[in-house]
Structure formats: C-alpha cells, structure tokens
Design a protein that fits this description.
Layout lengths: L1 H11 L4 E5 L13 E9 L9 E10 L4 E8 H6 L8 E6 L2 H11 L2 H6 L4 E2 L10 E2 L1 H14 L4 H10 L5 E4 L4 H8 L10 H5 L2 E4 L2 H11 L4 E8 L2 E6 L15 E4 L3
Parallel strand pairs: 6-7
Antiparallel strand pairs: 1-2, 1-5, 2-3, 3-4, 5-10, 8-9, 10-11, 11-12
Length: about 260
Amino acid sequence: MAVIIQDEWHQRAAPVALISRSGLNLGAIGHRYSHAGFLRPARRDDHAGAPATVAVRQLYFDCETAQPRVFDEGLAGFVRGVATDALPRFSAVWWPADDAHVLAHAVGNDELALAMLATTYQAQAHVWSLHTQNCNQWLAEVLAAAFGGARQRASAQQWLRAQGYTGSVVQLPWVGWLVAAAVLPHMGLQHHPGKDLQALRLEVSLPASLEAFVRRRWPQAQRVEWCLRGREVVVRRGWEPLDEACSPGPNDHTQALPP
C-alpha cells in the first residue's frame, strides 16, 4: 500500500501533500478518517541513484514522556496504523505547484513546526482551544504559519478564523461517550462550550475539516483516495468520497497489491 501511494507521489513530483488515514474506526460518529500528516521527502540516496523516499510529518502523543511531539514517520509505518475492523482507507490532497513549495518550506522548518505545537495534547481538543490541541489541529495551524505568516498559535487561529476554517462536528450517539472522554487519559472535555456538551456535540479538527478547507481555499487542489479490499486497492481521483463498501465507480480503477 505504501508503494502505491509513494508511486503516486513520485508521478506528481510534489514537495508536499496532505495524507490521511482511517487510523481509528470512527464510523459510529459519522467519520471515516481520524489522523492526517504532511507527506514530504524523507531522504535521497544520490550515490545509489535511488529515488527519494517519503515520510509523514505529524503530531503524535509520546506516551513515555507524556508530551506531544512532532514526528517524522516512514510512509510504511504510517500506512500500518489503520483500523483493522473496517476497510482501510487513505487519501492525499495536493496543492497547486507554487503554493505547494511555500507549504513545503514551512513544513520542513523545525522551529516553525514546534511553534505551532501546544504543550497539552487532547485527542478531541476543541478546534479553538489555545491550551490543548489534537494532531489534526496542529496541521491546520501549520497552514496558517505557511500562508498567513503566523508565528504562534493565537495568530494562527486568528488567520484560520478569517479564512473561514471550521472543525468537524462530531455528534456523539449517547452520553456515555462524554463520560469516557472525561476520564480516559489524553482525552478530556476542557474548553468545549457547555451548549455543545449538552447537545452531545464536539467541534474538533479531523481530516475531513482539513480537506474541506483546502478544497475551498485552493480550488485547483487535487485529491486521491485509496481503499484496501483484501488484496485489491480501489483508487479514486476527485473529491467525491468512496462509499462505505468502497465500490468502484465508472471513473475509478482497481489494482492488486504488489507481491
């Protein structure tokens, strides 16, 4: 699966892309993708003449130190982190060339990446919390650093608001989800408006909200989705998502996984 995604990346000769995975099965709350990162070059072995490999720059929670960190993970490792109780899905969004180079410069800037990192990780952090942050919100704020000149989280969120960014609305099926979120480590419900909690509703950054924002602000951006069904991969190019069964449409194609 990683080979297929990397081949697409090489064909596009892009310096960066937004890549998402179905890392957790969120079907019960109406979402398919849970985690995203920036796909970017990892290294190039010029001596051997090998093509550049790719990695995923992302925010993750370091359980050993109980701290959020910016982490570069190989694409194969990222691909392996999918839910096994649903069809594994991946998507990638490519920016227009000029904007992609601007973003690639910001993503590769370690100091800037850390400036957008909150000190407290919360898996379902409210989209506009300045005290907590989830992995997808960090990506949104890096976009604000790249294209809005933000150098700290408050100005990043101001830019995102001005550009019309909104989080994904998660409608919880029953109050027990709130109870679990309140007591589980690295969860919590701080900074969510009381009226949202009463309505069992959370507004958080998810891959869906990131993709919707990119599509609206960069109409020329392009999207590819892959869905793994056994040893077959369904590939769709375009913004219309695959259905629950990943049924290929007339403009989709399928391919077997490499042996």
